């Protein structure tokens, strides 16, 4: 059954307010397994629709596939409530042929193969041609700036009327400044040397037998990202520089922004004479629904179509992707970042601005400060505690940061009124990512204890030390096991653009392939190329006719470097 909800109708009495037969709700007897209260459930469903939920289904959870059956109109298994102004698609005609899942899968896989073909065509271009593509994309973003910002404004307006997670709103906005940063990063990538087909190792295995290790494109990458429409052009330009194809799934909250950005980029790629329009249209495939993403991730031969998955979003999203596919996944599930104030820290000139910037510059970012560790000597007496409160706690509170104390910190201040009002107790264990204007403060006895604390509670994203003691700083940088470790630097610097990478694929806390802010190198892998100046077989070596020399060679030819010839014995010195 379907019930249309209208703003103009009085829904206070769910039994009596339906003034037409089509939308009248008829209540049957209570089922043996139900708990009753159907009138309240109907009223709640209607209120939910009136307040922006697209549709609500009431049905028994014991019925397999009940939601799909309700949406498809497949029998009297439940009731669908929706707004008069936003109806769901009409149910499938009962006389129509049922959809063929295998046919749908074949269409989807066919699109993925086109992405693969387009990426190979991109790899065959010269570095100069790929640089030109990047310049065309930068020009397209600049020329269509107004349309892009208008699309983002539409997304922001729609956000208020839809039931999205509140934390997504801060990341959804695309300002003119952000767009200029994207354009600047794109031009920086265009100006860089070509990273594809670069020789990174070269070795003579035997006279006349040369081995080279060369960079090459990773292939096809699936990117799943929530909110942040500026992520789409950043990732796309990195892929262009590296010769990769993309499958892109953005959040519904940024649908208009992503649609316009995708169109602008595709048109820019198609504007050249050297990159076929068919490949320009297929290089970046935008997936519009979660079902197709799930099919790609769960397909038994998924790694034949996709080489890497990069989820950018909430902890729940990243963990779900990691558990749903056999395709390699690059990313991080948490951003629990620490700063340790060493006993030698300059609280006024360095610690205060660094802590404030790390926490308040962009609290929703994954590189925002979440836990502040304080050496016990900074709180050794009431004068020291008062200085800490004045220089660190008071400015944080003035910035509307909610502060939570670890057990040790609360004990340090429990007998004084220096912290007024006192800090609330932090949740245990002290490994919380707040994602907003909140943070934890705790005390440690020493630098080794701080290192142990960080290694135990950090997500290994970004952690830093504030110290004037260079030996303490060196020990912290050496011993903390995180992808980014800083000395007297805000945690907000953990970012691909700030690192000079041009843009950022994401930040990885994994240890394989890439770690930390991942730029264009995250789209690259390598291959080994072995070439003979004549003929080399294993038999030659087994019979002693030829021998291994294993000489490292310089990556570029040098006038004063003498390569051994077939008639000379090679030395085993490094060619650097």
Task: Give an overview of the whole structure.
This protein has 576 residues and is α/β, with parallel strands linked by helices. Helix content is 36%, strand content 18%. The protein has helices at residues 38-50, 66-71, 101-123, 127-143, 145-159, 168-172, 176-191, 231-242, 255-269, 277-282, 290-298, 315-322, 347-360, 382-398, 407-413, 447-457, 470-479, 538-542, and strands at 2-5, 55-59, 78-83, 199-206, 209-217, 220-225, 245-249, 284-286, 308-312, 337-341, 369-375, 402-405, 424-425, 438-444, 462-466, 484-487, 506-508, 516-518, 524-532, 551-552. A hairpin with a 7-residue loop joins strand 17 and strand 18. Helix 4 packs across helix 9 (255-269) and helix 13 (347-360) runs parallel beside helix 14. 37% of the residues are buried.
Which key features would you list for this structure?
36% helix; 576 residues; 4-stranded antiparallel β-sheet; disordered C terminus; single chain; globular; alpha/beta; 7-stranded parallel β-sheet; 18 helices; 18% strand
Secondary structure elements and pairings:
Elements: E1 2-5, H1 38-50, E2 55-59, H2 66-71, E3 78-83, H3 101-123, H4 127-143, H5 145-159, H6 168-172, H7 176-191, E4 199-206, E5 209-217, E6 220-225, H8 231-242, E7 245-249, H9 255-269, H10 277-282, E8 284-286, H11 290-298, E9 308-312, H12 315-322, E10 337-341, H13 347-360, E11 369-375, H14 382-398, E12 402-405, H15 407-413, E13 424-425, E14 438-444, H16 447-457, E15 462-466, H17 470-479, E16 484-487, E17 506-508, E18 516-518, E19 524-532, H18 538-542, E20 551-552
Parallel strand pairs: 1-3, 6-7, 6-9, 7-8, 10-11, 10-15, 11-14, 12-13, 12-14, 15-16
Antiparallel strand pairs: 2-3, 4-5, 4-20, 5-19, 17-18
Helix pairs in contact: 4-7, 4-9, 5-9, 7-8, 13-14
């Amino acid at each position: 059954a379907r019930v249309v909800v209208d703003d103009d109708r009085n829904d206070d009495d769910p039994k009596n307010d339906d003034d037409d037969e089509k939308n009248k709700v008829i209540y049957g007897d209570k089922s043996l397994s139900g708990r009753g209260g159907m009138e309240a459930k109907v009223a709640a469903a209607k209120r939910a629709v009136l307040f922006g939920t697209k549709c609500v289904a009431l049905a028994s959870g014991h019925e397999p596939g009940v939601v799909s059956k309700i949406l498809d109109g497949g029998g009297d298994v439940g009731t669908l409530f929706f707004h008069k102004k936003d109806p769901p698609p009409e149910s499938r005609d009962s006389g129509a042929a049922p959809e063929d899942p295998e046919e749908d899968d074949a269409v989807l896989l066919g699109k993925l193969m086109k992405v693969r073909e387009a990426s190979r065509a991109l790899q065959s271009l010269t570095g100069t041609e790929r640089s030109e593509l990047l310049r065309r994309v930068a020009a397209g973003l600049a020329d269509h700036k107004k349309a892009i910002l208008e699309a983002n404004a539409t997304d922001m307006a729609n956000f208020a009327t839809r039931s999205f997670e509140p934390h997504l709103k801060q990341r959804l906005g695309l300002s003119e400044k952000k767009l200029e940063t994207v354009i600047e990063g794109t031009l920086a990538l265009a100006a860089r040397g070509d990273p594809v087909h670069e020789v990174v190792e070269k070795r003579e295995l035997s006279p006349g037998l040369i081995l080279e290790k060369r960079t090459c494109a990773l292939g096809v990458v699936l990117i799943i990202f929530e909110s942040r429409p500026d992520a789409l052009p950043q990732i796309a330009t990195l892929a262009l520089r590296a010769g990769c194809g993309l499958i892109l799934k953005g959040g519904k909250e940024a649908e208009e922004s992503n649609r316009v950005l995708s169109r602008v980029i595709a048109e820019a790629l198609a504007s050249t004479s050297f990159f076929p329009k068919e490949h320009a249209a297929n290089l970046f495939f935008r997936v519009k629904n979660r079902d197709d993403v799930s099919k790609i991730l769960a397909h038994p031969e998924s790694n034949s179509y996709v080489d890497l998955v990069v989820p950018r979003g909430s902890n729940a999203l990243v963990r779900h992707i990691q558990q749903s596919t056999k395709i390699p996944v690059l990313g991080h599930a948490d951003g629990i970042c620490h700063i340790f104030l060493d006993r030698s820290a300059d609280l006024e000139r360095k610690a205060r601005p660094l802590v404030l910037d790390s926490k308040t510059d962009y609290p929703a970012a994954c590189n925002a400060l979440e836990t502040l560790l304080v050496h016990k000597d900074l709180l050794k007496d009431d004068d020291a505690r008062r200085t800490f409160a004045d220089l660190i706690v008071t400015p944080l509170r003035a910035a509307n940061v909610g502060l939570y104390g670890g057990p040790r910190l609360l004990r340090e201040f429990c007998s004084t009124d220096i912290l007024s009002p006192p800090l609330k107790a932090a949740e245990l264990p002290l490994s919380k990512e707040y994602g907003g204007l909140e943070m934890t403060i705790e005390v440690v006895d020493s630098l080794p204890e701080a290192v142990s604390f960080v290694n135990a509670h950090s997500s290994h994203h970004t952690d830093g030390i504030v110290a004037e003691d260079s030996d303490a700083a060196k020990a912290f940088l050496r011993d903390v096991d995180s992808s980014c470790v800083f000395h007297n630097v805000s945690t907000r610097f953990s970012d691909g653009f700030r690192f000079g990478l041009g843009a950022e694929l994401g930040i990885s806390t994994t240890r394989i392939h890439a770690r930390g802010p991942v730029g264009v190198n995250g789209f690259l892998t390598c291959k080994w190329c072995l070439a003979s100046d004549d003929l080399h077989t294993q038999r030659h070596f087994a019979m002693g006719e030829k021998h291994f020399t294993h000489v490292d060679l310089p990556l570029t030819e040098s006038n004063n470097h003498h390569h051994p010839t077939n008639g000379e014995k090679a030395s085993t010195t490094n060619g650097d």
